[in-house]
Amino acid sequence: MTGPARENYREDVAGRANVEDTAELKAYYGDLERFEAAALWTVANKIEPWEPKSESQPVLWRYADLREPVLRSVELVSPEKAGRRVIYLNNPGRRDVAAAVGWLYSGLQVMKPGEVASAHQHSASALRFIMEGKGAYTIVDGHKMTLGENDFVLTPNGSWHEHGVEADGTHCIWQDGLDIPLVNALEANFYKVHPNMQQPVAYPVDDSSYAWGAPGLQPVGHDWTKDYSPLLKYEWEPTYEALTKYAKSTDGSPFDGVLMEYVNPKTGGPVMATIGASMQLLRPGEKTRAHRHTGSSIYQVAKGEGYSIIGGKRFDWKKRDIFCVPAWAFHEHGNASKSDDACLFCFNDLPVMRALGLYREEAFGENQGHQPVN
Questions:
Q1: Residue among 307, 311, 313 nearest 296 (CA)
Q2: Taking the chain, what is the end-to-end CA distance rounded to the nearest angstrom?
């Protein structure tokens, strides 16, 4: 007899499954297996844990380690053959689903001057955060956007999109972030290649930023009914300016410093239905308190250097490094500089947690026990 029924996860706690195996019960379990069935009490304590137990591990991916291998892929494979020339980040606990953490995928994509990747669409939502290079662009449903360092661009669920680098540009590297593992777990992923391989540019270049990029203002008569943000590109300069201005008027969060979320300017909600994103500023020498929450997060260092303590382990980071925080793992951040601020870009699955009523948050040292706190 095989399977979870043999393991019989028992807990000597009132209200939890605590059935002792007997020869008669083992025979009964074997009979159930013949009908593709099993007894809940043999697995109940495993599948209904007291609190989330992530299979993901905290990981720091150092850009200094990855940059050369990423650039080497340019000489080894072409976008035409590879589809997309990407080195993905493989969490040791999530290798079965190619996830960087939880149900989130991430990778580093590289393109050289003059290259264009084929246009395609998929059910997974995606984002790009530009790490280095000049001349990169993305086209999303006919909207072409020029991209610079630390710019954040959306390629939402179902949109036709393609990437390229202008002929007079340089080698460009950006981080991809997608919810591929989540969509695959829901068995809802579709993928299509554009029938013409490329799509026409149907609007003025950077029109999304011109129409929707002014803080606090919305264009009149602009009909936007899609469930993702009409502002497809969030530029670094106004983002950093907003953070520094906000820092003058707030002490910030004790857990995240000066934190601002990227939002859909039409709704005030997350930029996409399944992926949220934020940028946070840590003042010189600032150290945050530890907390944990449901949902998984992937961080990229946009500016400065510092450290994060995740699940009791310290990770020292600097610009362009990437690290992950698994669900329900205690984490805190610190700015190592006494004179300059540090900024962390983050994307996460918190919109899913909130939409499904699954979001929970807890400060270190408060309410720890068997059951998670609402």
A1: 311
A2: 40
Phi and psi torsions of 296, nearest 5°: -105, 150
pLDDT of residue 368: 55
Q: Tokens 């590879």 appear where?
A: 82
Other beta carbons within 10 angstroms of residue 165's beta carbon come to 23
Percent over 90 (pLDDT), the chain: 89
| Predicted pLDDT of residue 225 | 85
User: pTM above the 0.85 mark?
Assistant: yes
Rg (CA), the chain: 23
Question: What is the greatest pairwise CA distance in the chain?
Answer: 76
CATH class of 60-363: mainly beta
> Half-sphere exposure of 374 toward its Cβ, with a 13 Å CA cutoff?
1
Domain ranges of the chain: 4-47, 60-363
Provide the 10 A C-beta neighbour count for residue 7. 10
273 Cβ partners below 8 Å, 6+ apart?
125, 157, 227, 228, 351, 355
pLDDT band at 71 (very low <50, low <70, confident <90, very high): very high
pLDDT tens by residue, 198-223: 999 999 999 999 999 988 888 998 88
